[in-house]
Amino acid sequence: xxxxxxxxxxxxxxxxxxxxxxxxxxxxxxxxxxxxxxxxxxxxxxxxxxxxxxxxxxxxxxxxxxxxxxxxxxxxxxxxxxxxxxxxxxxxxxxxxxxxxxxxxxxxxx
Length: 110
Hints:
single chain; alpha+beta
């Protein structure tokens, strides 16, 4: 099934997990992007008038990514990308394309 995420807005508060990529259009958040970057420290995301809606730079101060955890604040996200189109989804897709023998070896060693 497919649906359009055009004009879909999500409200976030502390404790929420972000399910999509997009720019913050209101508010300010402290988010953990550890699942994407491995960085243990939360980063500040805030609304700004000057923004590029298409981005995959995790250092971008207004763009929030799927897989991030909101640690503090409240904000509204304009959904820009969902599923495998997100940065997190792209990483998951790349990982799933690893050859089976490597997966079996990693599983055996794990």
